[in-house]
Amino acid sequence: MSVLLARALLHLFGRLPLRLNQWLGGTLGALAWTLSPKLRRITLGNLALCFPERDADWRRRVGRRSLIESARALTEAPWLWRQDAGRLRGLLQLGDRHELLQSAGRDGEAILATPHLGSWEFAGLCLATLRPTTALYRPPRMHALDRLIRESRAHTGSRLVPTTPGGVRALRQALEQGEVAGLLPDQTPKGSGGVFAPFFGHPAYTMRLLSSLAQRARSPVVLAFCERLPRGQGFRVHSVAAGEDIYSEDPTIAAAELNRCVETLIRRCPEQYLWSYRRFARRPKGMADPYRS
C-alpha cells in the first residue's frame, strides 16, 4: 500500500502546474513545522549550532522557511522529471558566478558538487543538459521505486551510478573520459569514508571521496546550488570554485575546504538549506550527540 500511495503522489505532483505544485509543497512544509516537534527540534538545533550569533526569532523564521522549502523540493521533483531539456533550461536564471557552472567540464573533466540547498533535483537535471555527466546516486528506501526514480533522474542525459565501489569506479572513469562527475557533498558518509572537519565551526563527518577524485588529475571542483524563486518563476544558479586545499593530501584539510565552500553557498540562502538533516549526528569520540533530547 505504501508503494502504491507513493506512486500516486508522484503521479499527482508530476502533473500539477509548477506554481501550484510549489504552493502545495510549501503548505505541507508549514504543516510539518507545526505538527512535527522532532523536525522542528532538529532544525532549530542545527541553526543554533551554525548561527549562534543570530537571535531566536531569526532562527525560528529561517527554520520554518527551511521546512517549507524542503517540502517544495520533494513535491517539485516529479514535476521536474517530466520536463524536457529545453523547458528546464528555460527555468534557469543566472546568479552569482554563474560562469563557473557554465564552464564546468567545457575543456575537460570537472567535479560538480550540489549540496542540499535550493533545488538540488533541478541542479542535477539541468547540468546534464549542458555536459555529459555521471552522478552518484543513493537508492531510495522503497526499493520498488528505485527504477522509476533512477530513470526519471537520468532522462536529461545523466548516467546515475550507485553509492558502491562500482559506482565510485564509474565516477573515476567518467573523469578520465573528460566528463563531469556529480556528487552531493553534505551527506554523512558511511563507515570509514570520511573525516571530521569544521562545518560552521563544529566537527562534521565529511566525505573523502570528492577530494580523492579531484587529486588524481587536479580536476576543477565547482560547488553550485539553484535558488528556488517565488511563484514558480524558476531557479537562479549560484556557484563557487573550491580552492587549492581541495587537492591536499591531508584529508582533513581537503574536507575543511569542501565544507567551507558549502558554508559559503548556504550563507547566501540559509532558508533554503535542509536544516532538518542530522548533519552532526556522528561525533568525534567523547563528544555528545547534539540531537539527543
Describe the structure.
By secondary structure, this protein is of the alpha/beta class. It has one domain. It has helices at 2-15, 18-35, 37-50, 56-81, 85-91, 98-103, 120-128, 146-153, 165-176, 209-217, 251-268; strands at 92-94, 110-113, 133-137, 159-162, 180-183, 194-199, 202-207, 221-228, 235-241. The strands form 2 sheets. The protein has a 7-stranded mixed beta sheet with strand order 1-9-8-2-5-3-4. A two-stranded antiparallel sheet has the order 6-7. Strand 8 and strand 9 (235-241) form a beta hairpin. Helix 1 packs across helix 4 and helix 3 (37-50) packs across helix 4 (56-81). The longest helix is centred in the first third of the chain and has 26 residues, at 56-81. It starts with a helix and ends in a 25-residue tail after the last helix. The mean pLDDT is 92.
Output the keywords:
293 residues, alpha/beta, two-stranded antiparallel sheet, 11 helices, 9 strands, 16% strand
Helix content: 40-55%
Strand neighbour order, sheet with most strands: 1-9-8-2-5-3-4
Terminal residue distance:
33 Å
Counted beta strands? 9
Question: SSE layout and pairings?
Answer:
Layout: H1 2-15, H2 18-35, H3 37-50, H4 56-81, H5 85-91, E1 92-94, H6 98-103, E2 110-113, H7 120-128, E3 133-137, H8 146-153, E4 159-162, H9 165-176, E5 180-183, E6 194-199, E7 202-207, H10 209-217, E8 221-228, E9 235-241, H11 251-268
Parallel strand pairs: 1-9, 2-5, 2-8, 3-4, 3-5
Antiparallel strand pairs: 6-7, 8-9
Helix pairs in contact: 1-4, 2-4, 3-4, 4-7
